[in-house]
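User: Fold this, then the next.

Assistant: Folding the first:
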Amino acid sequence: MNFITATLLRSRYPDAFLFSDPLFMKNNKTTLAVLIAGCFGAAGANAEETKVLSPVVVTATRVEQDSFDLPMSIDKVEKKDIQDAQLRMTLSESLSRIPGITAQNRNQMAQDPQISTRGFGARSAFGVRGIRLFVDGIPLSMPDGIGNPGSIDLSTIGGIEVMRGPFSTMYGNSSGGVIQLLSAEAPKTPEVSADVMFGSFNTRRDSLQAAGIRNGLDYSLTYTDFSSDGFREQSASSKQSATARLKTQVGNDARLTTLISWFDQNAQDPGGLVRNAVAGDPSAFANPTGAAANFKLVNTRVARDNTQIGINYEKSIDQNNSLNLIAYGGKRNNNQVLYVANAPANSRSSQIARDFYGTELRLTNRGQFMSKPYTITGGIAFGEMKDSRYDINADNGVTRPAIDANFNRNEAQSARNFDQYLQGSLAASERLDVHAGLRRTKIDLSVTDRQVDPVRCGVAATRRYCDTSGSVNYERTTPAVGAVYKLTPTLNLYANFGRAFETPTLVEISFLDASAGTGPNLNLKPSTSDNFEVGAKAFIGEATRVNLAAFNIRTDNEIITNQTVSGRSSFQNGKTTKRTGAELSVESALPNNFSLYGAYTLLNAQFDEAFSYPTNNNVAKNNYIPGTYRAQFFGELAWSHQPTNFRAAIEGRYNSKVFVNDTNTDAAPSYTIFNIRASLQQQVGNWRITEYARIENIFDKQYIGSVRVNDYTNQRYFEPAPGRNYIVGIKANYAF
């Protein structure tokens, strides 16, 4: 296919355009300039009819659109990369392949994976913050911004869209990005399946699923049971989950999707490691498979459960207008036993019982303005969470009776958001598309102290009986604007700008003084960011797609850790920070059923002003924001043998060293690891049998997989990753 033919095809069939084979793969020293130049006329060898297309996404503009034509960084993880020979227990398994995303597996299930984008969210100790999480348009993030990705069974997910940069502000108080999980489509023929997996550290995962379309009902029902001893002491975990997705037509012009999810989880927490004191061995860490003795003594652990139901109602009003109504609600319980240093009780139990609910109404209008196609989407969104929070002393991990004298805290906490937004795009000319949006966000946080005794208030030993009730609210209007210029049919250039803000979460305002356990801290300000991005998206022939983005972000009032003591953290506003960097991804289909994928991220996330902690820790200008990696790389070479349905791949991942505290006095070293995976599938009558295996860290490298940021008190910054480990499994599907 020559360039002229390709141009004609794209002009007539823009959603199904095919591209040819990469020339640059023949020379591994080819620069980006050559990649872009190749778009203007290069035509390569046929890649055995394998094509590379840009994915269709919905997160960026809330309507389906080819990601190639959007002026923003947005990538999609396909179903095969989520489910094929994967453990399917944490988002870090799939997101590590996306540029701009840091997705570190903590290798223990007591906490969610460490997920950040362009440095936002790196400080999070619990859950995911700075990034908004959704599943099928239904929020997984709470109104205060904290997200819990463990609520969803990844076996049910068919795609993950990841948006970074300025337009994430269209989803509210999120400075970093948006991650949307999309449920897998049900097969047209009803089928049932069973999946059994075994792995290192006595890991086992069993899953049952029924899915299909019958009598107009599109359904998927899944149950999963997981357990593992963990590779470290004090890291055993178990989790049971169930998911039901039901989709049905309502009349001729409407569709209703119902999503119900539940899980129950228990997990031990081995804590972080201290650095080995052996001189001359700075990369070694004390007992990498062990846990702190005191953590074992009190059996630090978490028990949590979550039940959520959501609906997504979509109605076509006429050919130009559509309506979308989303509503959700649920309950969550979390009981975490934490070690308390130098305390007679040795431990305490932090308990949260949460009710949450929300709704969103959205209208979309498509039409023409002066013969130019446009799309406008406007909506309102409301959400509320209500927490009952208790902090109770425990004796060696055994919670004391819940009586008044044993409560350190007894509070009702709540967060509420009310947002209005307007977002649209206009094809200003044949080559220029303009996108813009505006969102007004209001967040209210409140704390009601239910443990007040004026008689005992005022004495240091009993100050927990003083009334610490209070509230705070944050309001901002955040704009975003961008444009994409279609330089050629195979090369788009774009630029965008957005102003975002990020409010403190309820966890972050909970403590004014972490060492004393007093609070709340109602003086925290939201951080605000100016976010610039430029980029290029290009196709080289039928088989190669290249995305490049560069960004510059300046943030005022960055929310940073103040103290971390015995599992409690207090926070403060720092000065300004700057984030500059670039992201590059290349996807290519090679001859003989090989494919190549690579993603590289360069990030300089630094403090732009010097400041000091109240504890006399001095942070110098240009110190790196802890938890952010300056360089990350993910690469994958895959091969398939279609006659036998055999697939195999080798993955490589590199992370540079990462600082663990604001003062940059310690860091986890860089590492490079390699993984391999393979699967084989057979069709026998109505049965489809799939065997699969995966080996992680095939060269058995010792490395630190994630860090606990700013743990100044304990110095337990380092969470190690396992050496060589494996999973093997078999899945059987029966189609009726």
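Now the next one, as you asked:
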Amino acid sequence: MKIYHRHFWLLALTGIFFSHFSNAKADVRMPAIFGDHMVLQEKAKLPVWGWASPGEKITVTFKNQKKTTTTAADGKWRVDLDKVDSSSESGTLTVTGDNTITFTDVLVGDVWVASGQSNMEFGIQTDSRGKEAITNATDSQIRFFFVPWATALQPQTNISTIVPPSPLNGKWVVCSPEVIGANWAWHGFSAIGYYFAKERRRITGRPMGMIATYKGGTPAQAWTSISGLKKDAALDHYVDEHHRRVDNYTNARAIYSKEHADYEIKMKEWNKAKAAGQVMPEKSAPKEPTRPEGGYGAPANLFNGMVSPLIPYAIKGVIWYQGESNGDNMREAEEYPILFTRLIQDWREKWAQGNFPFLFVQLPNFNAPSKTPSEGRWPLVREAQLKALSLPNTGMAVTIDIGDADNIHPPDKLYVGQRLALVARHVAYGEDLVYSGPIYNSMTIDGNKIRINFSNIGGGLRLGTPPPTATGEALATPTELTGFAIAGMNQKFVWAKAILDGSTVVVFSDAIQQPLAVRYDWGQNPSGDLYNMEGLPASPFRTDDWSPEASQQ
């Protein structure tokens, strides 16, 4: 499966910014995540940091606070402002040393990081409801920050200083139709990130700051630090790969220099032919050589270049949409339960802000409708995401009913953003409400039947359909449950009948007289229609732990 990607003229970052300072006087400097129009996290310790001359006195003022520190010998300084309540009235943050930096129009509210691969990157301009969304994007209390794409072999202390292709990249911007309708990122800010922010604003009225750090076609190992990957022996192969790239960097850079020069020549010729009217399919375009540090898919490269520079900026939590790339092959799909939980723990460890909320999207339905009861690799990734709910303060938005069989980038992101916002209401803000569809809890075998018990049933179980599309299309409610499969000793699943019985589902098949296991929606594009009364779909699940080779048809 090929994930959407584009050529992007950013060079790789390979060193740590500001790692050494001379004894000469240096102006106070701040990382790019601080800027005019930024949002600071309410009711949280607020780290403010930067660089200056060793021994230089630094004073930070905001609202009624004034904090002072002295720059360390390595040129680094940091102060932690006390907790501040949310406010729609903007303030000014001032940092003074031998020079003064002033940040204006600063709000205090909620700050969320939106990260992952292309479905999180998918811009509001491309969304099926995008035109209306852009027209109505008039809330100046929503602020965006887009982290320019960058890779690095070592953790960076600031985002890329290379001039990005859009003046809106790498700085805080105020939400407006002009801003999100402008040509930046992948057709504007993340549609999911925008819908999430809009829904949170509707519910709380607090200012919202959305920090976007995402890149299409990228695997989870690229978003995890090397020190984080080292904490599980099953991920040692990624650590080894990283060390090989570090050791071979000088040689790889020399090779890349020549290959990239050849690529540019071929690319000019290709563009020239295209401009002359020749039919030039995108697939025929010259392929850019892999960067010497390994590119966007190499272990830790995106954490180093696009996450590390944000730390320790105070945040409320993370929304995450990723897993497609790790579902491209069986090894990574089977490994994902370890890798994904390690990524979540790694970010929390590095931010040192406790177990902040980490909310994620379970992979949607995709590809041709499932023909057999148990097939594909994506079910393993979905199961890994389901298992990650065992970590504290995590939440999952099930999207198995709102994907697109023919498009790995479903164009209607409204429900994804709203479901994430609903999960946030419970996980991040402590509201007592139904925030999830049915989740498998336990099973009991009774003769030739298996009874399935669920949590998160809300007002009860029911048959349901996906929400209406952007064009208003709605499906008729089904008359019987589908998507269930059952298996016996031979571990071969067959389609099963399923009946609602109060808060449980009874599953059986005439072909299986001694059943041992049940699976639901275990395919790339399954047909299940189990919901709770609140209209939230059940997560795919299995009651067994059999190997994929043994149980797939």
